[in-house]
Structure formats: structure tokens, C-alpha cells
Design brief:
The protein has about 525 residues and is of the alpha+beta class. It is about 35% helix and about 20% strand. A 7-stranded mixed β-sheet has the order 13-12-16-17-20-19-18, covered by helices on one side. Strands 1-2-5-4 form a 4-stranded mixed β-sheet. A hairpin with a 2-residue loop joins strand 7 and strand 8. It is globular.
Amino acid sequence: MDAKNLRQLISERENPFVEFSNCTTEIVDSVFQAICSFMNKEGGTLIIGVQDFGKIIGVAGLYLENMMNKIRYTLENEFSPAVSLTPTVVDLDGKTVICLTIPPCQDVQRYRGKIYDRFGTEVSDVSYSYNLVENIYLRKREESSENIVCPFLRMHDFDEAAFRKMRYYISAANPDHPWLGLTDEEMLHTAGFWRRDPLNNSKEGFVLAAVLLFGEEATIQNCCPSTHRTDAIYRNISYKKYTQPSSDYPENKYDNRDIIFSNLIDSYQRLMSFVKRNLPERTLELDGKMIDVRKKIFREVATNMLVHRDYTHKYPSRFLIFSDKVITENGTRPYQTGTITSDIPESHTKNPLITNVFQAMDWMGEPGSGMRIIRKYALLYDKSYGIEVQNGEKFVFSITYGKAEGLTAFEGIDKSRKEASPEVTKEKPDMPKEWPVYYSKLSEACPGIDISYVEKAESILEACVKPQPIQDMMQMVKQSNRTRFRQNIIRPLLEEGLLAMRIPTKPSSPLQKYFTTEKGKALL
């Protein structure tokens, strides 16, 4: 927070969202009680070095470092769950104050085993008041969709391929990660995906976050049938033309679309594959390394969309690509509303369980880093870029760009379909023997295919050098579910141009056969 904004807060005096502390040489207990109460309520700002009526007295410079260290240590060691916040030091007219921006916590927060809540500007210990503690739990339950307990779930409701894929990416990022030595069920328990409902001790089970990350598609639809949907749409027109269409422009026209109902691990890969197919690439040499700028930007956009969504919200998510703009929309319960500037991004983690898994797979960084990365690389992608974030009942992120020098024009989108160069492609590590997942050139050429299906897909390409009907292909790779076979193997191969239909105008024809294209044969 800068000096101008801080002065404005101080001038408005203390209120339910702002508290002053007159500490000058050491941090007293009431500071941490106030922090705990903010986390259990709606968040707020704590300013140290200011008296109750707004007089700025500042903290003693000699004690500043010790005070900062005590804040960090106490938040990490005496709060449950542990808290990671970065205090900001601001100079106001030659006097130093410490500012803490405190988000609400999705779990009930405790300081030294006690629960604190806010009532106006007052901080109260409510640990021994059953009704007041229950009110906090009810408030947290409404705020956090990922912690909903689903007691009817069993391990067979999860997709084994999702666990294998998670382990593969974790092993690439950190071969010593403790989850790698656990079974699927042990990992879920260790990582906090199994809980007892705090309002009903007889109700325990896997939480919704486990379903969203690892669930079979049918399991996900049973748990959140109308809310877990991501609609990715590409239209090869400008955003202005779409919002102000001519009379002859067909309603609901699109050039490419992927409606995603699958788990978040699969959803992320399908979104990145969609980006690769429909946005021009741009690779640059930075500090002696070739950087895929498109991937840097839209990895952050895709993870933000999936990780920070409220999965009980009525709105499905949308990932919209136009020739000059990308817009994402997803339902949320906002902690701040209106336009969010990229200089002061909202960094509160809405779904920490889901976030932990994405971070372990190295698919996202620390909370708040996403906007900084987007701003850094958006300028390299297009010098005329613009970013806008609107937070309300729907969280809307948009990035605007033109046809900058060196970028592929959208009419020539084929450039974005070519394979990544060896300098850009990160070498994949060997898969651990405990999780024998097949890996080949097909994994790079067709990222939309789940790692566990790569070997089957390669067998299909080999067999379809001579055209084959779908029933023979299914029998060959021992698949009995036609819908899943089409979704997991056939569709990704068709989308990447590795496989083709003999009768493309009638996909469901009983005479339909599939054959391997020249591009597909090159991978064999």
C-alpha cells in the first residue's frame, strides 16, 4: 500500500475494516488478536504506529526489524492454521508505520488456541461461546466451496489417471516431494482432503476439492451438476464486432469450442491446448533462454480461472478468445468488488487445497504472483496490451492486444499449431517406476491426451494407417465405453490433425472409418 492510500485510510479513522495500533518498540498481544479477528470476519487493514484517533507517531527505527520478525514468526507458528502475510513498511512525513493487509481466512482462525471475532471496531474472544463460534463456522462454510464434506464418496469415485498425472508433474518439479511416497488414499488424507464436518461431528468424508481435482466426470456432475463447466470459445473476429454485430452476422457463431466438464487437472491441460490451437505463439530469448511468452501469460490466466472459482456458484465459467482480446469469466464470492488495478491485485487464495496441488505440480506460483507475471510478459507479447479485472458476483479478467510486430496474424493461426522448438520444449524427466506412464513424441504433439492414454493413442495411430471403424479400434485397446473413448483418445487426435475421418460431414455414420494423417505417421 502506498503513502497516499494509507493517509486516506488513517483520515477515515478506525472502523470495522481498519484498526490502529500505537506500538512503537514491540508488538503486543492485542495486535495478533486483531489480526485473528479480521481473518475470522471479512478481512481488513492493521496499521502499526498510529494512535486511536489517527495521530501518526511511527515505530522506532531501532526496533523495526525485530517487530517485523515477530509478526512473521507469530503468524507462522502461533496461528492455526499458519498464516503467511508480508508486512509493508511505509514512510509518512518522516515517520515509519507498518501496514498489514489481512484477507479473510477460509478456515476458522485461532491465535494461541483461542478464536477471536470482530463486532464493529471491538475484538472479542469467543472461544467459549458455542453460538458465536458456530456463527463463524457457518460464515466460513458459505465462503468456501472446496471444504464441503461429501460423506458418500469412496476411492472408486476418483480417476486413477488424474493421480498418475499429478505425480508425474510433481516429480518433474520436485522429485523429493513427500506426496510421491504415498498411495492415492494416503495422499488425500495427508493433504487435508478428508475432514469431519465442524457442524456435524458424525459427518466426515472427502471434501469437494478432492472431487474437483481427481473425480471421474460422473462423480463431479453428481456433486455439482450445474456449476462445474468451463466453456472455451474462439471467434475469429474482434471483440467490438462481436458486441456490435452487423445484421448479417450469424448469432452464436464460433470457430472453435471445447465444453469441459472433467476434473481440474484435465481441465487445465485442455484449456492450455485450446490456447495453443487458437492464439498465436511468440517465443523470445531472455537472459540466454528461449521463453514461450504465450504460455507464460495464459498459464496464469487458466490457473486463476480454475483455482479461484466458487464451485457452488450458479455461473459456468467461460474462456473467450477473440482476434484482439481474451476474456475469462467465473463465479465468485468477492472479498473486494469493482475494478481491481494490476498494481494492487487481490492475492487472497480462495481454494487453498486446490492451490496446494497446482503449486506442487508447478502450474502456479505464490498467491498474487500471477498478475505480476501477466503484466511482465504481456508487454512482450504485445506492446499495446491492456488488462482489466472486474470483481463482483462474476470475476471477469480481460487482456487486450493487437497484431504486434512479430506476432502471427489470426488469419494465419496455423503457426500456433506447429510443434514447439527443441529450445523451448522442456525436457521431460523419466517417470518414476512406481507410476509407469507411457511417454513418447505423441505427448508433446497432442497435449490434450491424458498421459495414461498416450500408449493407447499411439496404438490407434499405428493401426489406422489402414482405415479402421471405431468398434475395431475400441476392441484393439480394450475400451468398452464409446463416449469416453471418443473424448479421451479420438477427439484430441482429430483436433491436432493426427487422425482424420473418411466421412467428415457425417461423424456418426455407421460406415465411418478413421485413418492416420501424414502428420500422425510422422510420429510413429
